[in-house]
Write a structure and sequence with these properties.
The complex is a heterodimer of chains A (238) and B (303). With 238 residues, chain A is of the alpha+beta class. Chain A contains five helices and 15 strands. Chain A is 25% helix and 29% strand. The N and C termini of chain A lie far apart (46 Å). The radius of gyration of chain A is 20 Å and the shape is elongated. In chain A, the strands form four sheets. Chain A has a seven-stranded mixed beta sheet with strand order 5-15-6-7-10-9-12. Chain A folds into two domains: 83 residues, 2-Layer Sandwich (Gyrase A, domain 2), CATH 3.30.1360; 139 residues, Cyclophilin, CATH 2.40.100.10. Chain B has two domains: 155 residues, no CATH class; 129 residues, Cyclophilin-like (Cyclophilin), CATH 2.40.100.10. Helix content of chain B is 13%, strand content 27%. Chain B is globular. The two termini of chain B are 36 Å apart. The chains are: A alpha+beta (238), B alpha+beta (303). At the A-B interface, strand 1, strand 3 and strand 4 of A face strand 15, strand 18, strand 19 and helix 4 of B.
Chain lengths: 238, 303
């Protein structure tokens, strides 16, 4: 790992942000997961919560329990002790069904134009790429999954939509996602997933994805989508 | 006019993309619970600007803090920053805030709403907490509170000592802990940021407060998303800063100059569109010391 990392900065009075790399990828994801595991095991009294993202880990702490330099020292020590991450073991393997029908794949034509690929080729690439969940954010249960192959990368919409439907499967640049709820959004919609990414029928609601998960998309037909949607509580429709 | 139920916020679930919420004016909120000998996390109603009307169905105590919303109990004016006894049938009405923005209505034992991910804080964007899954308080809602019977019969109420009551003016100064991408902003942009009087834009809500003013001439491009703490100052490509507040997203990819001292955020929570906002450079030691003092002060019980 690069000598300039890890770099710990004070992002607030009770927020220490550890940068572990410049660019996201499986290696840095493993390091972040390893550091999270070490911290959760060590349970320092100042620890409030951990928020992983693509290349960094935010450590929220209690300023009554420690000041920044104490947190910084302990984080550096935990990082050194963890050695090289053996994070290949982290993360579940999940399959996410997607219906790519015209009536839901609002931007498939646009993506086809931008990439020069046919809709069939786009679906083929989207379903044959192994993705990892690098971060959850934007909305509860919204997983940022990467990385898409170069041929499939398209920019966000110039003007975001006011209303993206729940279950919309979308891509932007190197990333893929499934919208967990109705929300505004600027990604290119290429399909719909019958499984809720933030299941509000349970108490508390259950996020489908976790950081570190390995995900592949699987194409399903219209009737299979409807069956799966029904099985999953009928929250998502066409 | 927005009223939401808030406790201290939803901590421990930000890694799932679940935001924190909580009171915009943490100082007024802390006093509200202190005036009733409540636990620090007891839920209160945050009332924005006023036009609020409630009828009590139980004998209990309430506390009013934050902006003076022109409160009246059965027609009789009440000054904020004090606790008051209410009885079944008592009518509490707010007028319109003369200064400040947010008033807090605390009740003995706290407003009782189901908790989700450990909190009943209303985060509308997440559709979590509050009433009906993340919704504001609306006319006709009934909210339960603890019965006063369990509490001390000798309780006689409190008033906040004068010296702790803030004045809400038309100009605020916010101290900044430089951090994150601070060094990536040009010298000129940093100077522009600290040298000017911004005006609070009318695009302000529980997610964040936007500043109007002279845009910074050059702003670093967007970056890999990272977790965003309370008070973070992000600068999108238009060069005008936004201070991110309680209902912010958990992670974000705009460059940040650092964050506003947490003890200064109540001033921003009570500022109005058009008010003058000035940012001054602070340091970590001072910011941590003052936050520690704030937390220690409210950790010691009144009695």
């Amino acid at each position: 790992m690069d000598a300039q990392f890890p770099k710990v900065i004070a992002a607030g009075e009770e927020a220490a942000l550890i940068y572990l790399a410049d660019q996201s990828g499986d290696t840095v994801l493993s390091s972040i997961q390893q550091l999270c595991a070490n911290l959760e095991q060590a349970k320092p009294p100042w620890l409030v919560e951990l928020v992983p993202s693509f290349t960094s880990l935010m450590v929220y702490y209690d300023v009554l329990q420690a000041n920044f330099s104490q947190v910084q020292a302990q984080l550096n020590q935990l990082f050194e002790n963890s050695g090289q991450a053996e994070g290949a073991a982290f993360g579940r393997t999940l399959q996410i069904p997607v219906y790519y029908g015209d009536e839901v794949a609002e931007d498939l034509g646009r993506v086809s134009e931008a990439t020069g690929l046919s809709p069939e080729q786009i679906i083929q690439l989207h379903t044959s790429t192994d993705l990892r969940v690098y971060a959850l954010g934007f909305r509860p249960g919204f997983g940022f999954m990467g990385s898409l192959p170069k041929q499939l990368r398209v920019p966000r919409l110039a003007t975001p939509r006011q209303r993206v439907p729940k279950g919309a499967v979308a891509i932007a640049e190197a990333q893929a996602a499934v919208y967990p709820d109705v929300s505004p959004g600027g990604w290119n919609i290429i399909g719909r997933c019958p499984i809720s990414m933030f299941n509000r029928r349970t108490n508390p609601p259950a996020p489908f994805l976790q950081v570190g998960d390995r995900v592949t998309f699987t194409a399903v037909g219209r009737s299979q989508f409807l069956e799966l949607a029904e099985e999953n509580g009928g929250e998502i429709s066409l | 006019m927005l009223a939401t139920v808030q406790d201290r916020g939803r901590l421990g679930s930000q890694h799932l993309g679940i935001g924190v919420g909580g009171p915009m004016d943490a100082h007024a909120f802390a006093w509200g619970n202190r005036l009733l000998e409540n636990c620090a996390d007891a839920a209160q109603i945050e009332v924005c600007f006023g036009n609020f009307h409630a009828r009590f169905a139980a004998t209990t105590w309430i506390a009013l803090t934050g902006a003076d919303l022109g409160w009246r109990l059965d027609g009789k004016p009440l000054v904020p920053w004090a606790s008051y006894r209410v009885r079944p049938g008592s009518e509490l009405r707010a007028g319109i805030a003369s200064t400040g923005v947010r008033g807090y209505l605390a009740v003995a034992g706290g407003w009782q709403l189901p908790k989700v991910f450990g909190s009943c804080a209303t985060v509308m964007g997440d559709r979590l907490g509050g009433l009906r899954g993340g919704e504001r308080v609306q006319a006709g809602d009934q909210i339960a509170c603890d019965s006063w019977d369990n509490r001390s019969a000798t309780f006689g109420g409190y008033q906040v000592p004068e010296k702790f009551i803030p004045e809400f003016g038309a100009a605020i100064t916010l101290r900044v802990l430089p951090g994150n991408q601070f060094e990536q902003f040009s010298q000129q942009s940093r100077q522009q940021f600290f040298a000017q009087d911004y005006q609070l834009s009318n695009r302000c809500d529980r997610m964040g407060c936007r500043m109007d003013g002279e845009p910074m001439t050059d702003v670093p491009g967007s970056m890999v998303s990272e977790a965003v703490p309370l008070g973070a100052i992000q600068v999108p490509s238009d060069g005008l800063p936004i201070v991110l507040l309680n209902d912010r997203q958990t992670i974000g990819g705009y460059p940040k100059l650092g964050s506003v001292y947490q003890v200064d955020l109540p001033k921003l929570a009570q500022a109005r569109p058009g008010d003058r906002v000035r940012f001054v450079e602070g340091d970590l030691e001072e910011a941590q010391r003052e936050l520690r003092e704030f937390k220690q002060f409210f950790a010691v019980p009144l009695v």
